[in-house]
Amino acid sequence: MKLLKKLAAASILFASAVSFTFAVDYGKLATSLADGSLQETVGNGLNDFGDSLGFSVPQSAVQQNVYAEAFIGKVFPAVPPHFAVGFNTGFTHLNTQGLADAADILGIDGVKSDLYFPVLNADVRIGGVFLPFDIGFSFMTLDVSSMIPMDAKFSAEFLTFAVDARYALLEDGLITPAISVGVGYSMNSGSFNASNSDAETNIDYDVKTLYGQVQISKTLNVPVVKIGFTPFIGLRGVISNYSNDWSWKYKGESLSKIQDAAKLANLSIPALNGDGTASSDGFGGFQPQVYGGVGFNFMLIQLTASACADLRHIGGDDNLWSGALSLRAKL
Prior knowledge:
By secondary structure, the chain is α+β, with helices and mostly antiparallel strands. It is built from 4 helices and 12 strands. Strand 2 and strand 3 form a beta hairpin.
């Protein structure tokens, strides 16, 4: 009997200690909400992530419609007419430290501090008429939630439409390379969400990008096996305009527990949610980029591998670079 009494007493003490620990935890949480420190910390993290999207999304967008040839040729007059269509897949490094910090404060575990988010788009390029220019279009809409490894409940969706035009200063000849200058524009939108049963955070981004570029390439053919390859390199200047809306909230049982803890401590909590916007002041944030790669040509098929580095955000936590692989049918 004495042993049973001791066990019962120990169980009561243990349960009380656990309850007390949780009460202290929610008490601290209520205090940080009441004095505004939690809202400030979460807001700062989501603002940082919104700013990261402001220069990472343009990097991803401009690397989606890269052709090995600086100029593919005219559609008229030309025999055959020059155009291409295909698919492009790739990835871009994204610093998610701000999102991870905000999620951690809200009790959402498992959000990584960086990731390589994938892209998959369709593109088409058409040669010019009479003048040596070409025009390209690319489009992507994709839910990549299952492609991004996260321990937390995480979702990500992207939508991109882009157009660009290139003018050949020099066409590919027997010895001379092709050199072109070009301009492009892209519209990008999407969302990131991290959540659990007690809290969630979300960011909806809207990024518009303008860029100018110069590219040089040289196609080399191996007649015996009918295979050619086209190494290329280019420089690009990018500016962007972004408005990325973020929000967070507590939900589920945590709502009532925080409110109860606040009542016990006689605290006034303005809200158990928050929102804000990370935005640029119009087009700006110049990003110098270097890109390059090689295209492998076999009859009407071209496989192109490319990479791009943002010279302003290379190294450190941002370490902004992209890689892409495309498969196209080309005349």
